[in-house]
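Page 47, continued from p. 46.
Same chain as before, 666 aa.
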Amino acid sequence: FLLALVHLSQGTAPVSPATFWRAIASYGEAARDGGTDQAAAVLAASRLPRLAAGLLVGCALGAAGAALQSVSRNVLASPDTLAVNAGAYLAVVSVAAFGISLPALPAGGTAFAGGLLAAGVVLGLSRAGAGPVRLVLAGSALTLALSGLSGMLLLLRSQQTTGLFAWGNGSLAQTGMQSIDRLTPVAVLALAGLVLLGRRLDILALGDDGAAVVGISPRQTRAVAVVLAVLLSAVSVAVAGPVGFVGLCAPAVVRLAGSRIPGLLRHRVFVPASALAGVYVVLGADVLLRALFGAQAGAAVPTGIVTTFFGALVLVALAHRSRDAGANGPSTAFARLRSRRAFVLTLVVTSAALVVAVLAAVLFGDAPLLLGDVGNWLTGRAGPLVSYILDTRVPRIAAALLAGAALAVAGAVVQAVSRNPLAEPGILGVVGGAGAGAVTALTLVPLAGFWLVGGAALAGAAATAALVFGLSARHGLEQNRLVLIGVGVSAAASALVSLLIVLTDPYNATKALTWLSGSTYGRTLPEIWPVAAALAVSLPVLAALRRELDLIGLDADTPRLLGIRPGTTRLTLLSIAVVLTAASVAAVGVIGFVGLVAPHAARALVGQRHARVLPVAALIGALLVVVADTVGRSVVAPSQIPVGLVTAVIGAPYFGLLLWRSRGES
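Result:
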């Protein structure tokens, strides 16, 4: 109640406390009279709807997170890590992109369908009780893919989706009580259903066999609980957009209190307590937001950005304190040995495929060309139009090729050092840190040159890498802890980028989305030389360290027994990966999944030896980004889809396949 009073007292309109108290006392009468009193009008039109939205969203997400954690037996489950919010947001954006305006209840139903489908996919890829890393990785992969699709729609249908970028970060700003009035009964019914389901959830926590013995169907109980939790998340998205990490923070707070308060963790108390904790998180974040940035900025900045910061800290803290559940060794998914003949054949085929892809990229786009046009351009006999097209297209292709190779090599190095085949620069926060550094430079210096942006990207990548690996090094870079901390740091970096964009240029989301989604548009040859230089320096060093790469990926003891200093070697290799990632981000923006997909495909084709993995991974990464760039330039020409969105849509299914194939591994 006190927090709600503080929340109501904040705003852009100056209202004295005495006037405001009178307005609260006479709110009903003023509302019936049409709001003739200024304080009552402010109260009715802005502050009470915002407060009501905070109460509804906090309750819905807190209870949803509690239910999802109980169903999956995973303390890191939430509407964010299960991609429920991302699926619901994509469904709402898809409807808006085609100019369809839905009332509150149909909009909530649309969000419910998208969220339920996403939750089903993630829970299917990460079975109950399989450990936190599988669930977070599956949710992160699907979130990236769904966010990529949402980004495509926001860019391609920018007029129809105006304002959805800020709303996509979770905004409590309301224009009235209409949506809240219609969706609150739905949330109340879903919350009541979870409370009534509490005894079954208590028994389900003992295990499926114990639940079946007393006549409770585990599958039916899980299904009902997931549907109710997704319904609550859909209500939240329909009202305020995807408010980040509330469903993770609120149950975590209650669990901490439950160690001291008997009976708090029984679900008929745990679910309502998590709902109340969710209100504290949402309203507390909104109060803190307006206290730090002022009432005017607080009205423009989405509350979800602050809750994402909180959630990232909670995720990092939980991962740092938890025991590692996974084997700290190499994956056996692609550990088959390959002959030298297979390596040479793979090298030739991938090189030929890359040449064909580059040629297709040169010929296709918004203005298709012929081979004769390219020949004339090479000999200096092309016309002005062909010369202009190729002068702008060829640097883009070169940027895509070099950036893809750099990210693939960086991903192979990160996977070897962390002994985690599911790690990559994007998941470990390095790509997000580089993007945050670059966007910070562009924000502070709008006319910043390429070298300043590139230096800021390198600094951001280095800072996040030092943070992630520093927090993980205490326990020997155990794979689960490393990935979870990286996901948390990456979420914080994304929230920082969104905050900078909204504070400085809230109406130009297209520019921000283009950068954050990875784009080769407008690249020139001088801007890609740093990537070429980074590859030219890194590849010979990595070739010289190929034995160390092979050994350090085995276990913690073998390198030391063979005279290798693990600490120094890891630092050297990670520094190389950071430089490659930062150079790539500075050249083409943020591109995800290349550092995961390319090394995995390379190991599947040529085995585990890094002398073979690195060149093949570089070729596959370059091939993937060149093809994605060509598709993005050609499918909706003359409009363009950023290359990072295409790689996210391509890479997420492959990542899901990796998780599915490894379901039987311990």
